[in-house]
Amino acid sequence: AVSNRLAHANMTYVNIGANKGFNVNDFLYRYQVSWSTTPADWFQNIISETNKSGFHVADFLLCGACGACTAKPPPRVRWSSARQIQVVAVELVTENVRLLQSLFTKLNVPGMIVHAAASNVEGSTFEPTEVRPGIENRGMHSALSTTAHVDIITVDRLAATHAIGIIDLLSIDTEGSDALVLAGATQLLQSRRVRMLEFEYHSKGGWQRPGMLHDVVNTLASFGYTCFWQGNSGRLAPLLPWCDGFEFRKWSNIVCTWQGGLVKTLRSLAV
What we know:
Blueprint: H1 2-6, E1 10-16, H2 22-31, H3 39-52, H4 59-63, E2 84-91, H5 94-107, E3 111-115, E4 117-118, E5 123-126, E6 149-153, H6 155-161, E7 167-172, H7 178-183, H8 186-190, E8 194-201, H9 212-222, E9 226-230, E10 236-238, E11 252-257, H10 260-268
Parallel strand pairs: 1-2, 1-7, 2-3, 4-6, 7-8
Antiparallel strand pairs: 5-6, 8-11, 9-10, 9-11
């Protein structure tokens, strides 16, 4: 139901912290008519491209912490005419960037890969060291000053640089920097140029600060966004009115939107 509400003629998906690209594949499978690559197919291509690179990484690491490679293909959206999809994948770790570049080329993914960290300000940071392809638990806070420099970008700057008008789905998974990434998308969010966003909440990185989630949800609400906890089963729970017990700092997903039809659909899924 949510996918059908989100669907329209020309869609843009921005994936901050793309890692191995399972979310990219999921988006394409839902919305692009000609896309037939299942999660299992994507996984087999990850293994193939990783082996070509000379790395030997355990399959369970390449599968993803949440077992993405074993997931069923998501339900497709039925189109009445041809549609255009643009994917923008932002990734910090060099080996993951190389893997994504191979996958995008091999499978003709319609979009681009940006090798950068995302935050609330532009600049540079240091890349996490000794990271094999597919490793997920690395972010800016795990980098050492002895490693290579990587650009820091904001989502606002990313959109301006690549002439992105509307982002249909902004997905953020940055191992604890999600709140900073959202702060770096303030212009887009204030102008409601992000139709739907999703991010992770847990105990790492910036989420360790007391009150951080409260501040993020209140800021999004001031821009007109309604947010929900997102369960693994697809069920949702509203994040407002606020409860201090929400600051439990366990692995969770949050989804937000400002559009009336999408809000109504999400509320229909809430417990």
